Structure formats: C-alpha cells, structure tokens
Amino acid sequence: MRISARLVAVAAAVSLLAACGNDKGGANPVVAAVGQMAKAALPKGKKGGTAPTAEPAAPVGRAELEAYGKPVLRIRAKALGQDAFLTILDTKDNVVTWTAQRQANFSLRDGVLIQTRGVGADLMSAQVPTLAQLKGGASYGRIYYFLGADDVGTRRTYDCTAATVGQETIEIVGKSHATTHVTETCTRPNGKVTNDYWIEGNMIRKSRQWASNLAGYLEFEKVID
Prior knowledge:
This protein is mostly beta strands. The protein has a single domain (5-224), classed as YmcC-like fold, CATH 2.40.360.10. Helices cover 14% and strands 49% of the residues. It has helices at 5-17, 29-34, 62-68, 131-136, and strands at 72-77, 82-92, 95-99, 105-109, 112-117, 123-127, 139-147, 153-172, 175-188, 191-200, 203-212, 216-224. The longest helix has 13 residues, at 5-17. The radius of gyration is 17 Å and the shape is globular. The N and C termini lie far apart (47 Å).
C-alpha cells in the first residue's frame, strides 16, 4: 500500500522525537512529558491518511514542574500530533532555543518563532517583528526561509500588521494570567498567515505561530519562567 509523501514526512518527524522516551531520568516529570511527543497515533491502513491526532502531554502538575527548578515551555503541534513540555537548550541574548531532548529544537526571539529543527520541512530562519512592534500595532515585513524535503531552500516574504484584540485572562497548567491578545496578519499575493500572541507585561506568555507547510501552526505556552 502506498503512503502519501506528507504522511511519510510526518512519520519521519515523529520517529526523530521517539528518542525522547529513551532518557533514563524517569523520575524527572519534564522528561516523562517530553517522551509523550512520539506517542500520537498515525493513521493506519488508509491511502493518503489524515493528520495524526494530538494527545495531551503527560499528566504532570504545576507543582511538579515548579519543583523541577527550570523554565518549561509547552508545545502543541496539531499537524504532527505532538503535545509536550520543552526545556532550554541554549540562550543567546534574547534568543532562547527550547528542546525535546535534543531531538527537536525550537528557537524563539523574545517569544517569536525564528527557527525549528527536527520536525521535517523545517523553518531554517525568519525575519520577525520585535515585541515592541507587536505591542504597538505596527506594520512591517516578515520573511520565512524554509528547507524542503528535497533540500531546496524556499523564501516567502509577507507584509504584516499587528493589531490588539483586547485583554484576556488565560489559564496555563492551573495558573491564570492577565494578558493582551495581539493578532499578526501577514499576506502575500498567494498566501496568508495569521499568528496570535498573548502578551503579559514584556513577555509572550502564549502564542500560536505558523512554522511551515508540514508543521502547520505551533502553539507555545510559557509554563514556568
């Protein structure tokens, strides 16, 4: 039975994350949660298939995550069927790279996604807005650089505008946060991307950001600062 190219790519991405569960630090709740990233079920026995369904992260409470003593970021990737907690791999100035046990990495500048590694057709880099531009309702250009399955690079340029939706209280793993919801609308002649940010003070507490055609939209929640 033939499997669609998209399904093969998704399966490859999931297999890369499978090593997360091999970490021997079983007592570490964050490691256990990250291990769940590879457990979403892929469709079986269907030509072409459909996207896998995301499973919730391991049932780890806020108290356990706080006791871990390190910053924690939650990620949901519906298109890849992933839901897990990430920890910091590296920090350079205002760019933080979060990791799923070094199998998949996500770099964010002040909370705005600029790079992914290990999720298939990765976002190689991006020219993105500053937090001040998002908060100020500015207009600006945004550029995405991708690497396709055939290792051919692609560039996409968008014209973007940020707009404040309003004040919203959100809950992240049992804790409420008073935030300002900002929507970023980006357009080009044959495409449109809409990203959402929930900003708390000078921090993006939660976001929904487009990463690539394969990964789709990634949802990030800053659980532990």
